[in-house]
Amino acid sequence: MGSGIAEVFARGGWSVVGLEEQPDALDRARQRLAASTARAVERGKLDAAGAEALTARVSWATDVAALAGCDVVVEAVPEVPELKRAVFSKLDAVLSPDALLATNTSSLSVTALAAGTSRPGRVVGVHFFNPAPVQPLVEVVSTVLSDPAAVARARAVLEELGKTTIACRDRAGFVVNALLVPYLNHAASWYEHGYATREEIDAAMVAAGLPMGPLALLDLVGHDVTHAVLHRLHGQTGERRHLPTPLLTSLVEGGLLGRKSGRGFYTYAADGSVTDDPGLVPPPPGSRAGELPEALLVPYLNDVLTMVGVRYTSAADADTGMALGCRMPKPFDQLAALGPATVLARQQQVFAETAEPGHRPAPLLEQLAAADDPDLALHALRTADEHAGRAGLR
Questions:
Q1: Cα angle 149-313-183, degrees, rounded to a multiple of 5
Q2: Where does the record place the 3-hydroxyacyl-CoA dehydrogenase NAD binding domain (predicted)?
């Protein structure tokens, strides 16, 4: 991610210093940048002269003092809190007080990192999606300590670099993972309970307009990655639905991590194709496949409305995040297609069946369903948030 982020800034015309403390790690980063720019030339995204100019804008160092003159620094070390805090401490000692300090964490507390510096107001989260040079979305995360000017500066810089930004506050999973991962866990739970076969689950969600079925997507992402995010979500919410389903835990413990290990919910041949293995769970004795896709889609939409209702993010940014971060349909388009009243009725059933506090219908969903003209109320919500969201969170 670090070399990819360096490439993003260098493509935008910035002078970049790439820092790694170990010379061999620095060499690997340099090689990754060279390989990425070479691929861009091969694909016609960059000409040879542009590639040469890009790499010339990047210098490399192993001493943090080389960053002293930088006015924007993005930390992209592994997701280990102690390691990130140590890096922030070193950066804090050499950067000017006005420098913007950003962390590329995907789920760790930005607030805790900011609190350990002498410039907490100048620390923001900037969650790039992988690969950074290609993926257009960046989540910009503010904390209770953030200077609004620093958040606005981060968004402006990233958008000048051609990225699309969405704003959110500092909570586990931010926007995209906080919405996507519980949906994936719910799908895994449905399969584990034998409510539907893996093929029925995945086919139903693809037919509903999603680019990939949730079980196939879990295999692609890696069960270890999803498992870790779920534990972070559960650590913050305490909700049972954010605990990894037991089958997912068993897959991780057994080293069946999905495509990267050759087996997960599906089994993969050497060429990456799916084999005809029978799967992990016997065919359901009493199928509930007829309840799909709404059975998985409605709780996800309720999560979206809960998030927007507490002003954690805007409707426009939730739409943008899921469309660009996951290539999923915009959730508020899905809500409009189903209708707030239909979604509310189905979510009330889910809550009655599970008694999970996190499945309680969102107050915003209840308000939309009760409106004299739900379509007009939904349009007003999306339009208001679209304008308000550009300056960050209210």
A1: 140
A2: 1-170
Closest CA to 223 of 195, 254, 202: 254
Beta bridge partners of 127: 139
| Full-model pTM | 0.91
Q: Which amino acid, residue 13?
A: G
User: Could you list the pLDDT tens digit for every one of the 394 residues in the chain?
Assistant: 899 999 999 999 999 999 998 999 999 999 999 999 999 999 998 999 999 999 999 999 999 999 999 999 999 998 888 999 999 999 999 999 999 999 998 878 999 999 999 999 999 999 999 889 999 999 999 999 999 999 999 999 999 999 999 999 999 999 999 999 999 999 999 999 999 999 999 999 999 999 999 999 999 999 999 999 999 999 999 999 999 999 999 999 999 999 999 999 999 999 989 999 988 988 888 899 999 999 999 999 999 999 999 999 999 999 999 999 999 999 999 999 999 999 999 999 999 999 999 999 999 999 999 999 999 999 999 888 655 444 444 3
User: Token pair of 51, please?
Assistant: 């590639």
Nearest to 297, CA basis, from 232, 258, 350: 350
What is the C-alpha separation between 340 and 376, in angstroms, rounded? 11
Decide if 224 contacts 257 (C-beta within 8 A). yes
Measured between alpha carbons, how far is 186 from 181 in angstroms, rounded to an integer? 9
Q: CA 204 to CA 195: how far, in whole Å? A: 13
Helix axes 223-237, 246-253, angle to 10 degrees: 130
Question: Where do the domains of the chain lie, and which CATH numbers do they carry?
Answer: 2-169 (3.40.50.720), 176-291 (1.10.1040.50), 294-391 (1.10.1040.10)
Backbone angles phi, psi at 132, to 5 degrees: -60, -40
Angle subtended at Cα 324 by Cα 111 and Cα 322, rounded to the nearest 5 degrees: 70
User: For residue 385, what are the CA distances in angstroms to 132, 255, 338, 382, 394?
Assistant: 27, 43, 21, 5, 10
Phi, psi of 168 (to 5 degrees): -155, 170
Q: CA 298 from chain center: how many Å?
A: 20
List residues with catalytic annotation.
Answer: 106, 127, 139, 177
> Could you give the CA distance from residue 249 to residue 244 in angstroms, rounded to a whole number?
6
Q: Which tokens belong to 365?
A: 């969903």
